[in-house]
Specification:
Length: 346
């Protein structure tokens, strides 16, 4: 019999984030498809009661928690103590956790302490034929495999954005509180503060409906023989602030800064989409001034609807990489789009 533990941490406001609720839905579905299995919820955080209340009605047989100031912030040495204590108390055989930056750092260590195994970057958890399995992509999202394991406990880090979030009614949920005692050495690292860009400066927005990708063409000489990086920057930032789209880039564009060329100052390698960049998940994508070569478009694997603007009718987007290619000047197109968005808002 499998005991499936949903292991989540609360956010700073004490609630469960979207990624945690997606993992809860996956854990619940797995429990429903494995006869005789049980679902347990495990929570870690400064405050966890409101997080527990969000899980009311999910069908968990127990809710186990570790709470208090020592567990409020992400810290490997205390998070691993909490994760280990909860997994042991639950006698968990399968631990499903959201692949947040906090859990990504710590759960491989927890699996090791418990003599278990871990799979990361999991995109789905299935119980087909009464056997638990996880779906995972390999070779930069080119091949998908279903992985099964006999070793327990089996830790599974589920990528955010791959499934529906649990959305059941709230209620009062009693929590079995554990009190693992971190040592002074465990508390040596302290969080002094958080530096985060303001919402408007934060250009990577995983929950955005649209991914807007800028390519190197924005900084290249245009039909008048000159480059216009200042106008490019202003058009792109204006569009992002009006549409709240997430900003992606090609490798060529973010690499240009290393070559001393005029570049868009708000771009970093974190924006890069592709084989050596990221593979975001958005319902729609719009590529501008980007050729659409395979090492870039492989990062578009999970974008459902793809459109591109390019001056070149023979660019790679025209070779089956996009649903719609607008053969047009991206400067002119985005000028017009921004004007339409401004008119709509006004
Ligand atoms: C091992 C390996 C890994 C790689 N990994 C990645 C990766 O992760 N991500 C990635 O992006 N690349 C990656 N690359 C590089 C990739 O092959 C391409 O070189 C890169 O994506 C090209 O970037 P680009 O399309 O922005 O630039 P370019 O190829 O220079 O294309 C610029 C485009 O802009 C168009 N253009 C110019 N002006 C305008 C205008 N006014 N309006 C409309 N269109 C205009 C041009 O027609 C042209 O098509 C990798 C390469 C290798 C070998």
């Amino acid at each position: 019999m499998e005991i499936i533990l949903l292991l989540a941490h609360s956010e700073t406001d004490g609630s469960l984030g979207k990624a945690a609720l997606e993992s809860l839905a996956a854990a619940r579905n797995l429990a429903a498809s494995l006869a005789g299995s049980a679902l347990v919820v495990g929570l870690v955080g400064g405050e966890i009661q409101s997080a527990a209340n969000q899980t009311a009605g999910c069908g968990a047989t127990r809710t186990i928690g570790v709470a208090g100031p020592d567990f409020a912030s992400s810290r490997y040495s205390t998070d691993i103590v909490a994760a280990e204590a909860i997994a042991r108390a639950a006698a968990a055989t399968i631990v499903i956790a959201p692949a947040t930056s906090r859990w990504n750092r710590v759960l491989a260590g927890a699996a090791q302490r418990l003599g278990g195994r871990i799979d990361t970057h999991v995109t789905d958890v299935t119980g087909a034929d009464g056997q638990p399995g996880v779906t995972r992509w390999y070779y930069r999202q080119r091949m998908e495999a279903v992985v099964r394991r006999t070793r327990r406990p089996w830790f599974i880090l589920l990528e955010p954005g791959c499934g529906q979030a649990w959305n059941g009614a709230q209620g009062q949920v009693p929590v079995e509180l554990l009190a693992p005692a971190p040592t002074d050495a465990n508390r040596r690292t302290t969080v002094a503060g958080i530096h985060a860009p303001s919402a408007d400066k934060q250009t990577i927005r995983p929950d955005a409906k649209l991914l807007f990708v800028a390519g190197a063409g924005w900084t290249k000489a245009q039909p008048d023989g000159k480059a216009h990086p200042d106008e490019a920057e202003q058009l792109i930032l204006d569009f992002l602030s009006k549409s709240k789209a997430s900003l992606g880039s090609t490798k060529s564009l973010v690499d240009l800064s290393g070559e001393g060329q005029a570049v868009l100052k708000f771009m970093t390698h974190l924006n890069q989409i592709g084989q050596t960049g990221s593979t975001p998940r958005h319902p729609k994508g719009l590529s501008t001034c980007c050729h659409g070569e395979e090492p870039h478009t492989v990062g578009w694997r999970f974008i459902n609807e793809r459109r591109a603007v390019n001056l070149n009718p023979n660019c790679s987007w025209a070779q089956g990489k996009a649903d719609v290619l607008y053969v047009a000047d991206a400067f002119a197109v985005m000028r017009k789009v921004n004007a339409l968005l401004a008119a709509q808002a006004g």
